[in-house]
Structures are given as C-alpha cells and as structure tokens.
C-alpha cells in the first residue's frame, strides 16, 4: 500500500514539475510583467483595447453559433443513423480540427479572397465542427430512444419530442462543446493572422504584433492578462459542463443501435451531408490554388519549394523545413506521450482513492489548453535565460512548447479508457503477486493499446501544425513548415504565394494520413468528445 502511494506520488510529480517549469513559470512571468510598469492601467485606459476585446469575443461567439448549427446534424448522423459512409463522414469531419490553423486560413483565403470578418467566422467554425459533432454525438449515441418514442406515442410531434425530451438530455454535451469551441475561437491565431490582415485583430494576434514588431512587452503582457481571464472563465464553464456530461453518460449506460432514417430524419441526414461537402470545399480549393498560376496549371510552387527559390526566401529549402517539422513534432510527441500517459495512469488510480484530488490535478493539467500558445512562447523569451545555458536560443524549447499543447489532448484520449477498465482485473493480478509495473503491462496495456496509438497519432499532427509558440521560439535557420508558410505569405511575388500553398498541401496530406490511421485504430470512446 505504501509502495503504491509512493509510486503515485512520483508519477504525479513528474508531469506537474514539467508543467511548473515550462508553463506556470513563463505564464506567471508574463502576468508579472503586465502588472509592472503600469502596463495594465495604460492598456485598460486605451479604447483600442476594448475594441480588440469586443472583436475577439464577438467573432468567437459568432463562430461558435455557426459551428453548433453545422455540427448538430452531423452529430445526429454519426450517433443515430445507419447509413453507408458513416466512417468516411467521421474522418472528413475530424480532419479540419487537426489541420494547422495557418492551413485553414490559407484554404479560406483561396475560397473567399483576402478575408474579412465573414471569412474569419467561417474558418473558425470550419475548424471546430468536429468538436460539436463528436462531443454531442458521443452522448447522443448513448441516449435511450424509449423516452422520445414515448413522447411520440402520447401525441407529441417529432420536433416537440426533440425539444422537450432529447434536447434537455443533450444540454450537458452541448454546453461542453460550446465552451470548448468558444475557447478555441477566442484564442485563434493562424486563422486571424491570415484572414484578418491589418484591419481585423484579436487579442491573440495583437499580443504577437506588440511582441515581435513593436517590442511593447508591457503592453503585450497586459493583453495576455486580459486574455487569460477570459480563457480561464471558459475553461471553468467547460469543466462544469464536462462533469455534467460524464454524469449523464454514467446514468445512460445503454447504447442504442443506429437505425435507418425515416421520414423527416432524411432532412437532417441531407443537412449533415451538405455540411460535409462544404467542409471539403476549402480543402479542394487549397489544392487547386497550389496548382494555379497566371499561365495555367503548374507544379511551379512545389518545384520551387524544393529548390533555390525557397532557400532565397526562407534560408532553407522547403524539404528542410518539412524535415524540421517532422523531427520536432516527433520529439514533442514522445515527450507528451511519456508525460500524458503517466499523468493518465495516476489520474485513473487517484480517482478511486481520492476523487477530489484527481479532479484538481486533472484541471491543472488541462490549463495549457486554455492559455494562448503565443503567451507561452512569449513567456519563454522572458524567463528561459535564467536557466543554465540560456535556453531561449536552444532548439529544445520548440518541442517542449509543442508538448505542452499536446499533453492535455493525450490525457483526454487515454484517461477514459483507463477509467473504463474493471479494477477487479488489476486486483486479481496484484493478488497473484504481480508488481504495479507488471499489472500495467499485463492488464492496462492490452486494453489501452489502441487508444495509445490513436493518442500518439493525434498528438503528432497537432504538434506538426503548432504555430503560436513555435513562431516565437524557432531558430531562423531551422523553420518548421507552419513558420515557413507564414514567412512566404508575408513576402510579395506570385512564386512565394505558390510555395506557401504548396506547403499547406504538404502539411494537409500528412494530417489526413495521420487522421485516417487514427480512425482505423479508434476505440469505442469518442476521443474528441472528451475535450
């Protein structure tokens, strides 16, 4: 018993220590910098600040509404309808969520031109339809149809049965999805950077502008403080909604078998198919744009990306940037898998012994999802010179920053599977003399193996497309593909634009391949539905 407590203590200390050094310390330094030198007071007194806050919250709210309206029909299709192609729909809906935000921004610029508010809202909604579809669909698939059927038998119309019976039951999942989508849209960086231009800026892009171009560190810190207040509020709402959703799932353990749609249900199915088609439109437009030049169709962008044209702009070839991205994402995924799986094991054990402590630790480990990656990257520049060797110029910081973003996603993917394992199997193995490590190897690992593969693949594509923190930390001579795309679109010339679109397509191909692999090893639980 004592040995188990020591093991849990050590297991919890490792990811928490990493979080303290590479997350809490940099973020605290940013907040402290904003509170000093009258930074917060000056920023709060500036009317432009409140314009930024209003636009940030307004576009996030509008994007959330659009994502909800688009995601609900898809959630119904995935949860209740036995139609051919559901697996393909699930794959297509998931791809936008893990596409790098810069790629999403470039895709919508290829469809809608130079951008603007409408493009920003649609792009953010496009990015988050999967959150709504899989969060709500995960609960919807577990709702007992008999309550709705009873309402219909008593004379209620299909619409009234839905609004009076099904919709209230789905409320926890809808609330959870709305909180998460709002959080992602409020901290959207790449999308707003590409589509907003100099006219439309959010708190996230303004922090980046003040840090990189204006060197206004106190002002950027004060804006980071304002943003942190907003995102922590959204995190708290999301945590409350997620707890209610988990309770709802626990009370509805009976999973309904999907059945063929009837009557008006086909309208919902048609709406879901229309959403899927619209999700594909920016993707195909991006591919077409990468091949389109003034002289017609051409692979000039791809050819230039691998040659001297890219070196003259980026300092390295596109191939070198791709190799940098792949290597950095691999390192980040290894680190995040070690920390995330270790944390998930500890949380699954603590929940049975000390539930409140497990909830508190879970909340702390989720904080990197709610704090801007730009703020974290900015924090590294402020603090990491205090460590031996001045890590600010070290390539190690990039995978560390990416691992911070990936680790919570890995925990949310693996933890539900570990919690679902019957504890009596572990107890039986321990009674027969198995050590804790052997219990994990013989009992937990066979059950969690597929979710571990899914978590690794999912984490890899998220790390591959990370841009917010990476843009601060990457060395000029070793850019990743997202950073290379940002540099290319900021330079004039058709060839630079073509290379940027070609880079986006390469990133998208890797993402699609990884998501397809994830879907093949997907376990019964909805990983995205746990966010």
TrEMBL record:
The chain crosses the membrane at residues 12-33, 53-79, 91-112, 118-143, 164-197, 217-242, 263-288, 332-351, 363-384, 396-418, 451-474, 499-518. GO terms for cellular component: plasma membrane. Keywords: Cell inner membrane, Cell membrane, Membrane, Transmembrane, Transmembrane helix, Transport. SUPFAM superfamilies: MetI-like. Gene3D superfamilies: MetI-like. GO terms for biological process: transmembrane transport. It is found in: Cell inner membrane; Cell membrane. Residues 53-238, 322-518 form the ABC transmembrane type-1 domain. It holds the Pfam family BPD_transp_1. It is a multi-pass membrane protein. The keyword ATP-binding does not apply. Belongs to the binding-protein-dependent transport system permease family. This is Thiamine transport system permease protein. It comes from Allokutzneria albata.
């Amino acid at each position: 018993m004592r040995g188990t407590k020591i093991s849990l203590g050590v297991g919890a200390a490792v990811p928490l220590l990493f979080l303290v050094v590479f997350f809490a310390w940099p973020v605290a330094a940013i907040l402290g910098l904003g509170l000093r030198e009258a930074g917060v007071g000056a920023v709060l007194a500036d009317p432009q600040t409140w314009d930024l806050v209003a636009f940030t919250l307004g576009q996030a709210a509008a994007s959330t509404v659009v994502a909800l309206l688009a995601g609900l029909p898809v959630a119904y299709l995935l949860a209740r309808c036995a139609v051919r192609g559901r697996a393909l729909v699930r794959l297509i809906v998931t791809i936008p969520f893990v596409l790098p935000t810069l790629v999403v921004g470039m895709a919508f610029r290829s469809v809608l031109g130079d951008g603007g508010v409408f493009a920003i809202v649609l792009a953010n909604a496009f990015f988050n339809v999967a959150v709504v579809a899989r969060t709500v669909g995960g609960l919807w698939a577990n709702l007992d149809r008999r309550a709705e059927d009873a309402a219909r038998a008593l004379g209620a119309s299909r619409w009234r049965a839905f609004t009076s019976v099904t919709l209230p039951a789905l409320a926890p999942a809808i609330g959870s999805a709305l909180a998460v989508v709002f959080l992602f849209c409020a901290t959207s960086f790449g999308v707003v950077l590409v589509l907003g231009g100099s006219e439309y800026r959010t708190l996230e892009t303004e922090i980046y502008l003040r840090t990189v171009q204006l060197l206004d560190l106190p002002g950027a810190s004060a804006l980071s403080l304002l943003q942190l207040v907003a995102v922590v509020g959204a995190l708290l709402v999301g945590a409350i909604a997620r707890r209610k959703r988990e309770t709802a799932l626990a009370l509805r353990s009976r999973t309904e078998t999907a059945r063929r749609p009837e009557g008006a249900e086909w309208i919902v199915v048609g709406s879901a198919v229309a959403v899927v088609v619209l999700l594909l439109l920016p993707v195909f437009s991006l591919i077409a744009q990468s091949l389109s030049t003034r002289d017609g169709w051409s692979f000039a962008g791809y050819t230039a990306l691998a040659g001297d044209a890219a070196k003259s702009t980026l300092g390295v070839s596109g191939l070198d940037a791709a190799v940098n991205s792949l290597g950095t994402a691999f390192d980040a995924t290894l680190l995040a898998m070690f920390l995330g799986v270790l944390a998930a094991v500890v949380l699954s054990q603590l929940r049975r012994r000390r539930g409140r402590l497990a909830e508190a630790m879970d909340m702390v480990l989720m904080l990197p999802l709610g704090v801007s990656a730009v703020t974290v990257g900015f924090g590294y520049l402020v603090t990491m010179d205090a460590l031996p060797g001045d890590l600010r110029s070290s390539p190690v910081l990039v995978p560390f920053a990416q691992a911070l973003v990936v680790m919570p996603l890995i925990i949310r993917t693996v933890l539900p599977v570990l919690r679902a394992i019957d504890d009596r199997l572990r107890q039986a193995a321990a009674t027969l003399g198995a050590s804790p490590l052997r219990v994990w190897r013989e009992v937990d690992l066979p059950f969690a193996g597929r979710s571990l593969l899914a978590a690794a693949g999912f984490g890899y594509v998220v790390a591959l497309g990370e841009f917010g923190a990476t843009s601060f930390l990457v060395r000029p001579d070793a850019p990743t593909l997202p950073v290379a795309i940002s540099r290319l679109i900021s330079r004039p010339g058709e060839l630079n634009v073509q290379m940027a679109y070609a880079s986006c397509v390469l990133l998208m191909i890797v993402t699609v391949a990884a998501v397809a692999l994830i879907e093949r090893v997907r376990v019964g639980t909805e990983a995205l539905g746990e966010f």
